[in-house]
User: Fold this.
Amino acid sequence: MQALAPTFSDDQAEAWDRISSGLKSQGVDIDNGILLPPGEGRASVMAVIGKAGSGKTLLLAELYKALKGVGVEIVSGDWEGKRRKERRSLAILAPTNKAASVLRQRGVPATTIHRILYTPLYDPQYERIAEWLAGQAERPKVEGLTEEALDRAHAFYQQVASIPGALAAAGLKGSDFIQGWKRREDPLDIGFVDEASMLDERQFNDLQEIFPRLVLFGDPAQLAPVGQSGKMVFEGLEPKQRLNLHRIHRQTQDNPILDLAHALADDSIGFDDFERLVREKAGQDDRVMWSERVDADLMARSPVLVWRNATRVKLITAFRLGHDAPADDLMPGEPLICDGIELPLKHRKKRVDLEARGLIKGAQVIYLGPGNRSGFAKLHVLGAEDPQLSVASIIKIERPEEEEPFIPHAHTMGAAFLHGAAVTIHKAQGSQWPEVQVFAPDLAAAAWANRTEAGVPLWKRLAYVAITRAETRLHWVVRNRLARPKQILGISDLKAAPKLELKSEDDRADAGA
Assistant:
């Protein structure tokens, strides 16, 4: 703790002490480097709550480093070694691929909740490689793999502790070594959950079944999950279970984007006042842009954030027209949003496979082209650890003033997608992009409607979430106009060929995914 203390504010240090004290009572002493077998004590849940810039991610990252340093096993969701009675484990989770990838970019091995709820079943001969890489077995001899291939796998694993990545370096595909997925039966130990404001009650209950020690990290100013009356799961915890981070850290105090986000807490600021503040910031710092038009080029990889579905559909239509997209087909490079998995209950195994690969509702993907079979599409899942796949798809393109969407690609069942050049602010939660466009006329409409959520003007909650999705630059769009694209839509920034072909349990079944 002494080595880490200089990096912490007082409220972070208090949160660290409270969390480490709770872990110590459960046999994980990060201050003295002592691990004891897990006991049968009472399950515990704590929540670290703070607005953007309050240091939640720093605290999570430092706790991860400390737990790893004392020998706690990090469970990533891609492979797990044999259970040992004395094992203590940690999993770091996020509700979406994008949220998990943001943490991974910061050196924290996060995975999605789905990848922990469902565990992969490895082919036995390739599981021997995983055990060797994890230091649990001797170097194996595997039929069909040369010593040089094993050396490549080992070298990769030393750089990035990913079993699937190492096996891919050896020349294997996911379909070679992962035979399927099963619902987790055995509990884990410690769970950290980022972006906990997005958790619904069902996910929260699932996590409590798996983790006797759960720490949530969430922002109380974001939007609550739809259907939960504006409340987040951590708001139901006892006061002693909530650790509040109030201070905005020095490294964020000169960030005009966060300045705008925190200005929304001022009750005296109305929408017009806020827009004047945005314009003032834009005149002072190019990290905030006052934009008269939506930038079509940005929409290809970073969706415009809107409140109303009607606005979303109009902007998508304008985006496609600007790129001269055909009326009856998709172009490679068009962005999509997964709208769920449309499979009957008897195909539960296929649904689990898709979700574990990253195709959960709300996942952002880029269309690469048609698949090798009718109704299949090649896709790149943004933020997924193994992003490229081919899957049975139902792709729907909505059009203004038309009740039924246009469907350029459709299998009888599989993963359903909507166009992703514009998304609602609710669906953008958990994601971040280097540059973000916020469609201000929609927020103005929310302000004029005088709607509130949990006692806060809805436009302020929407603006806060939308603004904090921007990592480096915020574009505040004030007119209902779209600039013509300057770049040709394409996939040159992505790999052209999919790595995985997601097949049905019985490949002869045409309805497979």
